[in-house]
Each structure stands twice: as structure tokens, then as C-alpha cells.
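Re: [ENG-882] Designed sequences occasionally contain unexpected residues at chain ends

Forwarding the minimal case from QA. C-alpha cells:
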């Protein structure tokens, strides 16, 4: 499916179903928001990465204008809908201050693998426990998807952008599990190092080896 979308490039990755709150202050994006509200339109947030507008982003809908300020700035609530690929980018949409572009909504599969999902849950529990973030694990939905945890994995923007481009839930699960399996030993070793530093200088109750 192809369409023309107003575009709001940001240095973040937005995932489908994600709730995102934005403070809008630039004149061009204040115009974008008002156009979308008045015309009942959606807009796109492509990821601004490596000094340029990335080809991929997420179409979002405005749920509510939470607050309007005297100077025209706004706090808005949005929700991610679909992933798109930019086919043609206009720095300024016709007759408007903001960017726009021809985009193609890409097909996204939600074909999860139950075993991989269980492994992800186990590794997440260990990671959050070590980091003292057990509350995040407690808040994890029973039937969570990759997008539900994507911002809670310690990924950098480049890694999140790579995840955005994986259009199968199984591929996303495999990428997330690999990341957790790589980062967990590092975090555990860091905790051990911190403990060794704390114990340095203390009286040690050690059992001599038998030889």
C-alpha cells in the first residue's frame, strides 16, 4: 500500500503500537500537527540516523493534544501504527513548511516462535534481576511481542533501527535473544567486578585448597 505522508524525522525509533508523547515546538511541526488534526490524517516518523533521514519509519496517529501553550507549542500523545519505507522524500511537502514523502506500508508478519519467546523471557528475568529492574519484568505482558520490550533491552539507536527493519516476529525474536545472550554475561561479570571492588581490603574468610 502506497500513500503520501507528512513526515516528522526524529533521532529515535518508533515501533508499531508504541505510545509516544511529544512536545512540539518548531513552527513546521506545529503546522504538521494542526493539519493532521483538522484533516484527520496520520503522519510518519522516520528515524534520523547517521546524519540523514533513514528509509524506514513508523506511521503514527495523534491520539490527543494534551496541552496547548500560549506560544503555540503543544504536548501531543501518539500511537505507532505501521512500518513504512520512504520511496520519495520531499524536504518540504507541497505548500507546507514540514517534510513529506511517498511511502510504502510494508508487510509485517507476527509469526512468533513459542520456544524462542520462553528463552527471551528467561533471559529478561535474569537481566532485570541483576540490574535491579524487577518491576519491569513484573509489568511484562504474558503475551508480549518484540515491540513491547524493544526499548527495554539496552539497544542503541542503530540496533533499534535494525530491529525496525526486521519484518517477521520470528526474526525479531532471534535478534533479541542473541542480544540478550551476548549482553547478559557482560552484565553478570560487571556485577562480579563491582563486588570484588567492594570486598577489597575486607577480612576474607577463605578455605585453603587441599593439595
Amino acid at each position: 500500500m502506497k500513500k503520501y505522508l507528512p513526515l516528522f524525522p526524529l533521532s529515535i525509533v518508533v515501533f508499531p503500537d508504541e505510545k509516544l508523547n511529544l512536545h512540539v515546538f518548531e513552527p513546521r511541526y506545529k503546522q504538521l500537527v494542526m493539519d493532521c488534526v483538522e484533516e484527520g490524517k496520520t503522519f510518519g516518523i522516520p528515524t534520523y540516523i547517521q546524519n540523514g533521514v533513514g528509509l524506514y519509519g513508523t506511521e503514527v496517529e495523534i491520539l490527543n493534544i494534551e496541552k496547548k501553550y500560549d506560544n503555540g507549542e503543544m504536548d501531543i500523545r501518539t500511537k505507532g501504527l505501521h512500518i513504512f519505507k520512504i520511496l520519495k522524500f520531499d524536504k518540504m511537502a507541497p505548500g507546507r513548511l514540514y517534510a513529506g514523502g511517498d511511502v510504502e506500508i510494508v508487510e509485517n508478519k507476527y509469526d512468533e516462535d513459542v520456544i524462542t519467546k520462553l528463552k527471551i523471557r528467561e533471559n529478561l528475568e535474569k537481566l532485570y534481576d541483576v540490574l535491579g529492574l524487577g518491576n519491569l519484568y513484573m509489568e511484562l505482558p504474558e503475551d508480549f511481542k518484540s515491540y513491547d520490550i524493544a526499548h527495554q533491552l539496552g539497544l542503541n539507536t542503530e540496533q533499534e533501527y535494525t530491529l525496525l527493519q526486521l519484518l517477521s516476529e520470528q526474526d525479531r525474536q532471534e535478534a533479541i535473544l542473541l542480544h540478550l545472550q551476548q549482553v547478559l554475561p557482560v552484565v553478570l561479570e560487571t556485577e562480579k567486578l563491582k563486588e570484588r571492588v567492594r570486598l577489597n581490603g575486607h577480612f576474607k574468610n577463605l578455605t585453603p585448597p587441599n593439595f
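QA comment: On inspection the terminal residues look reasonable. The radius of gyration is 22 Å. Proposing we downgrade this to a documentation issue.
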